[in-house]
């Protein structure tokens, strides 16, 4: 899975390193492995003392931190070496570790592993000024294994729409409701604490939620909720059942629509006691929530459809985009805030569909993980093969994790946002009534692998965990690997404000038809973060940066730390202005071996590959000083990239929306950049970019000079690509074009 063909790759001049080594000439930074220290006759007192090591196993990689005692110089480097446990082969060169700014802590990741892999590793530390070299003892660490089924021998209760709550709950005599199965599981765990399984026999549809908030299961699979049969036919539905089934909104009121005096607005009775956050007509027409009748009639935020529940009344108002009556269409009015709420560790949910949630306070979760404290969290849980459809509310999230949900795996799931994807981007970007997506993460050490989502607001976001983020608490050590995000209206992959993205990995993801930002690295604590081998392509509505990397959202937090952007193909087009944009103060982003394409025509200059974005009013709104970024341009650097600004673009690079640069002026150290000393500007030949195939044609990138990156392009682990190539290379499955 790694790039490269030779073992033990890694020598001076071939490694990417984060940590200022020296300033050569007029501001040129040297980013390479430290050379062996020269012999000294009278070395000074040791700068590097004891090195403490901590390894955190993800599903497909391992995060490693080194805690150095002593007073290492700014030139000190730490290098990882590793091999598979039990192997007699020499150790392979891993990443050069990244120093956390203002500390003596370094971090890196061991990449391209599989669940259950065990590796041996050691760290070699060098401090050139002191001539000191320190090597840690060989240690071992392993990747995790995700839960893939309920524990054998635990209680099992079955549910089917043909069953009865007076039955025993066995496979042949199932219960009818989830509530009855839950009650049976509560009783079973009162004595044994063995956890257990609730199995939903398909086809079937249940309009009720399930809370796993009882007992203290002692097994490593605590509770399991699994579907038996075709997952598309096993449905937990968060909408009001009679309205969806037979045209009634409750036992006595038929669903009848009446035209109102307002153009294209229809009204129907709906019980005032129900708190509704989402309205869908039929099974594919999601309406957009409005806050007043004037918003509904005036197509507020550019949305021609909408719904409004009269405050304190019993009327539901609906306006379809085509202006027609909703009569004859099933009404799915979401009122359940979640389908499943898991508050115990080792919960497993698989092989079913969750749709149309949307309850009080705007929550429309599919699965909520985590309780109110460490004793009742949902850590080590797994959501596998679940389909989410049309979740509504202010936050219609497929899997929502609180800060008490560490080491969670979300794999092979699919989220369909229905017609929310048809909204204009500006309408969705600034609307607060509806923000849906596959996952919202506040715990640490999550893995999102092999998921697909289309027509959502965000694919995945990380959130404020409820306390000041730090190196070792929530939202750190995420793995976001091999996912496909199609038609996101805001951000596809967002590590957002208030969270931590320490030692996070974004690897092998595809974000296409992007309406906002493809990748956002905008967390309060960042770094090191590794953004590797991703493909981001825009939609015709794009008017934002493809990769945006910002600063802390509150001035009291430390500045961001380094991010490595390598082997990505990033395309800006439509009305977009840039492929890479850096906002905020003291940015530090390092680009290597990327394919960068800018084709937009907006803003000052337009079409820029690099842009140091700065807007005082926006920066002040985020709580920072609103002063120009005087540090980020010197801390960031790009090299060995292949650049194509395409016809119609005006500027290769710009800074602070006013200064513009060519490749020559970047190389000539204009304003302290010294970027792209080995990069090239050329016309790039893709296989069929017009139809979404962004793989390179043979010989499609003449003259490219690439940098082999230890730990990324080296062969230890499963080989991802046989040769060193620039940009993204297709290796995974794409979902169908919409």
Spell out the blueprint of helices and strands.
Layout: E1 23-24, E2 28-29, E3 48-57, E4 62-70, E5 77-84, E6 92-96, E7 98-99, E8 105-110, E9 118-127, E10 132-135, E11 139-142, E12 156-159, H1 178-192, E13 196-201, E14 204-206, E15 210-212, E16 223-228, E17 234-237, H2 241-245, E18 258-259, E19 265-269, E20 278-281, E21 285-286, H3 293-297, E22 306-309, E23 315-319, E24 331-334, E25 338-342, E26 348-355, E27 365-369, E28 382-389, E29 395-401, E30 409-411, E31 414-416, H4 425-429, E32 435-441, E33 447-449, E34 452-454, E35 458-462, E36 479-481, E37 484-486, E38 491-495, E39 500-501, E40 504-507, E41 510-514, E42 517-521, E43 525-526, E44 529-532, E45 535-538, E46 547-549, E47 563-566, E48 569-572, E49 578-583, E50 589-592, E51 595-598, E52 608-613, H5 616-621, H6 632-635, E53 637-639, E54 642-644, E55 653-655, E56 659-661, H7 663-667, E57 680-681, E58 686-688, E59 693-696
Parallel strand pairs: 12-13, 13-16, 14-17, 15-25, 16-26, 17-26, 25-27, 26-28, 27-29, 28-30, 28-31, 29-32, 30-33, 31-34, 32-35, 33-36, 34-37, 35-38, 36-40, 37-41, 38-42, 39-43, 40-44, 41-45, 42-46, 44-47, 45-48, 46-49, 47-50, 48-51, 49-52, 50-53, 51-54, 52-55, 54-57
Antiparallel strand pairs: 1-2, 3-4, 4-8, 5-6, 5-9, 7-8, 9-10, 9-11, 18-19, 19-23, 20-21, 20-24, 22-23, 55-56, 58-59
């Amino acid at each position: 899975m790694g790039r490269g063909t030779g073992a033990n790759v890694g020598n001076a001049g071939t490694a990417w390193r984060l940590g200022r080594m020296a300033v050569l000439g007029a501001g040129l930074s040297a980013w390479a492995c430290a050379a062996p220290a020269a012999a000294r006759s009278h070395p000074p007192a040791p700068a590097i003392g004891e090195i403490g090591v901590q390894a955190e196993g993800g599903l497909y990689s391992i995060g490693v931190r080194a805690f150095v005692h002593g007073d290492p110089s700014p030139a000190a480097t730490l290098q990882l070496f590793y091999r598979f446990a039990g192997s007699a082969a020499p150790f392979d060169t891993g990443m050069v570790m990244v120093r956390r700014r203002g500390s003596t802590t370094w971090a890196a990741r061991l990449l391209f592993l599989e669940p259950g892999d065990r590796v041996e590793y050691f760290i070699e530390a060098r401090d050139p000024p002191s001539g000191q070299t320190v090597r840690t003892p060989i240690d071992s660490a392993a990747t995790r294994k995700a839960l893939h089924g309920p524990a054998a021998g635990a209680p099992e209760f079955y549910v089917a729409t043909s069953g009865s709550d007076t039955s025993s709950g066995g496979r042949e005599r199932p219960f009818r409701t989830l509530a009855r199965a839950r009650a049976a599981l509560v009783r079973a765990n009162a004595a044994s604490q063995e956890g257990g399984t609730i199995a939903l026999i398909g086809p079937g549809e249940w309009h009720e939620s399930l809370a796993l908030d009882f007992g203290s299961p002692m097994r490593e699979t605590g509770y399991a909720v699994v579907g038996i049969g075709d997952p598309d036919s096993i449905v937990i539905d968060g909408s009001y059942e009679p309205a969806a089934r037979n045209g009634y909104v409750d036992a006595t009121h038929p669903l009848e629509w009446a035209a109102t005096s307002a153009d294209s607005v229809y009204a129907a009775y709906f019980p005032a006691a129900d708190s509704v956050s989402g309205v869908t007509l039929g099974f594919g027409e999601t309406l957009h929530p409005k806050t007043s009748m004037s918003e509904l009639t005036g197509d507020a935020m550019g949305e021609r459809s909408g719904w409004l529940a009269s405050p304190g009344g019993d009327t539901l108002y609906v306006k379809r985009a085509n202006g027609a009556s909703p009569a004859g269409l099933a009404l799915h009015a979401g009122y359940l805030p979640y389908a499943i709420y898991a508050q115990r560790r080792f919960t497993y949910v698989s092989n079913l569909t969750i749709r149309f949630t949307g309850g009080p306070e705007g929550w429309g979760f599919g699965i909520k993980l985590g309780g109110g404290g460490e004793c009742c969290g949902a850590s080590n849980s797994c959501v596998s093969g679940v389909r989410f459809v049309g979740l509504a509310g202010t936050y219609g999230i497929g899997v929502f994790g609180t800060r008490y949900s560490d080491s969670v795996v979300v794999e092979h799931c699919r989220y369909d946002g229905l017609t929310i994807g048809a909204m204009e981007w500006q309408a969705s970007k600034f609307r607060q009534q509806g923000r849906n997506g596959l996952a919202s993460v506040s715990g640490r050490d999550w893995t999102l692998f092999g998921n697909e989502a289309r027509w959502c607001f965000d694919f995945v976001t990380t959130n404020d965990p409820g306390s000041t983020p730090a190196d070792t608490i929530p939202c750190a050590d995420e793995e976001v690997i091999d996912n496909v995000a199609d038609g996101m209206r805001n951000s596809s992959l967002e590590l957002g404000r208030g969270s931590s993205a320490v030692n996070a990995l974004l690897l092998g993801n595809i974000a296409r038809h992007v309406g906002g930002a493809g990748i956002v690295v905008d967390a309060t604590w960042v770094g090191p973060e590794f953004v590797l081998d991703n493909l981001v392509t825009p939609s015709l509505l794009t008017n934002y940066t493809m990769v945006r990397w910002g600063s802390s959202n509150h001035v009291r937090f430390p500045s961001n730390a380094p991010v490595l952007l390598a082997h990505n193909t990033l395309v800006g087009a439509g009305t977009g202005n840039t492929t890479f944009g850096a906002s905020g103060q003291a940015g530090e982003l390092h680009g290597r071996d990327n394919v960068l394409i800018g084709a937009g025509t907006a803003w000052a200059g337009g079409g820029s590959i690099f842009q140091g974005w700065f807007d005082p009013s926006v920066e002040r709104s985020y709580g920072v000083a609103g002063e120009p970024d005087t540090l980020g341009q010197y801390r960031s650097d790009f090299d060995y990239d292949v650049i194509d600004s395409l016809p119609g673009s005006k500027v290769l690079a710009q800074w602070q929306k006013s200064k513009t640069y060519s490749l020559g002026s970047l190389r000539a150290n204009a304003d302290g950049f010294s970027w792209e000393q080995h990069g090239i500007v050329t016309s790039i030949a893709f296989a069929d970019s017009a139809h979404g195939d962004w793989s390179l044609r043979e010989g499609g990138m003449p003259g490219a000079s690439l940098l082999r990156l230890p730990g990324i392009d080296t062969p230890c682990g499963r080989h991802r690509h046989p040769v060193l190539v620039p940009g993204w290379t297709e290796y995974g499955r794409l979902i169908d074009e919409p």
